[in-house]
Specification:
There is one protein chain. By secondary structure, the chain is an alpha/beta fold. The protein folds into 2 domains: about 1-170, 3-Layer(aba) Sandwich (Rossmann fold), CATH 3.40.50.620; about 180-269, Pantoate-beta-alanine ligase, C-terminal domain (Pantoate--beta-alanine Ligase, Chain: A,domain 2). About 40% of the residues lie in helices and about 20% in strands. It has 10 helices and 9 strands. It has helices spanning about 5-15, 30-45, 60-65, 70-80, 90-95, 110-115, 120-135, 145-155, 190-210, 220-225, and strands spanning about 1-5, 20-25, 45-50, 85, 140-145, 165-170, 230-240, 250-260, 265-269. It has a 6-stranded parallel beta sheet with strand order 1-4-3-2-5-6, sandwiched between helices. Strands 7-8-9 form a 3-stranded antiparallel beta sheet. Strand 8 and strand 9 form a beta hairpin. The radius of gyration is 19 Å and the shape is globular.
Length: about 270
Amino acid sequence: MIIFKSINKLKKKVNIKANVGFVPTMGSLHKGHIALIKKSKQKCNKTLVSIFVNPSQFNKSADYIKYPRNLNKDLKILKKLKVDYVLVPSIKDIYKTKEQMKIKIKNEDKILCSKFRPGHFEGVLGVISVFLKNIKAKYMFLGNKDFQQIFLIKKYLGNKFGTKIINCKTIRFKNLLAYSSRNNLLSKKNIKNGILISGIIKKFHKQISRNFSKIKEIENIKYKISGICSRVEYLEIRNKNNLKTNINKNNFKIFVAYYFGTVRLIDNF
């Protein structure tokens, strides 16, 4: 495993144009990340993992500061997985030039997380554009827990850099709660409550699949969830193909964002 501290050093030493899979992360690695890495190793000759906590995608500086970090633990996990290359760039390295694309999200896309976290996805798209423009990996692997993020990356960056984006399934505990780095900030009680919320939404999804008229009960589900967490930011049903509201029994997906104290979690079923 070779660790690089800058993109330029990576570009000089590695033939990225070969069959290389790229897994971008913000560290604090969990089983969701591990599944992405294993998928890359199956599909590609070499695998590159980046660890970079991107400040421009945080709405609040306090959230950026408290985001869980454990680089030494992450590197041990990556070494055990026999990852070929690891990129751990500094903020200065990523933002040192003007090559970061200034991407403005259209009003039609200011929904779900984008509605409640203004500037968040612009920050995500900006840093991903820097990575893809320089790294030019054959494939990039992303998890479906961040479904809206993948949708926007494909929409705004999809064909610009020649990297094919691979959606990978959300990895969950046996009790349905999705793996997330932010879970490290939760108490055991909140973990249990998160499990309850996942179960409620999963059950709701099954009910709609059997009887589409059940979507009318969404406000009741939102009320039920709000009694378990600190607050529900949104609970919406949208078309999984375009994130619009033209839904039917075959294309619907449930999206949720909720808080335990100051910790924000998202999911979709």
